[in-house]
Amino acid sequence: MRHNKKFNHLGRKSAHRKAMLSNMACSLLLHKRITTTVAKAKALRMYVEPLITKSKDDSTHNRRTVFSYLKSKTAVTELFREVSVKVADRPGGYTRILKTGNRLGDNAEMCIIELVDYNEAMLNAKDAKPAAKSRRRRKKSTDAATEAPATDASAE
Length: 156
Known about the structure:
This protein is of the alpha+beta class and 156 residues long. It has a domain at 14-119: CATH 3.90.1030.10. The chain has six helices and three strands, in the order αβαααββαα. It has helices at residues 14-31, 38-55, 60-70, 73-86, 120-127, 142-155, and strands at 33-37, 95-102, 109-115. It has a three-stranded antiparallel beta sheet with strand order 1-3-2. The longest helix has 18 residues, at 14-31. It comes from Halosquirtibacter laminarini. Keywords: Ribonucleoprotein, Ribosomal protein.
């Protein structure tokens, strides 16, 4: 029975899975956006979001804890210097998964996983909202109704 075992093993042994998630997390932190399968992206989201939360408090203990997961000095430095500053006021939900369709070779469902505060196109689109349109009907005035036949009569 597999009660309360919800972690996706991704068809790999634990050492391979941990190494893969560590490498994917480093790539995500360095490049801010990566393309992968939906299953791996969901597993990566569960892996990287607690690390981003830890980076909000810059202490030696937190740096060492994050380094034990990532195994990359450059990724840890990028996380604590750049990413933690941008997500300081965000209470969670640091990543976004955008589905892109299926892969040609094996028809696997593909997606882009990205850090939310680094997608400039979506941030600009959110700021530049179009003006709110009124959905009320225009009242027809009696002047417009009487003028229409008069213009038709004068045209003849």
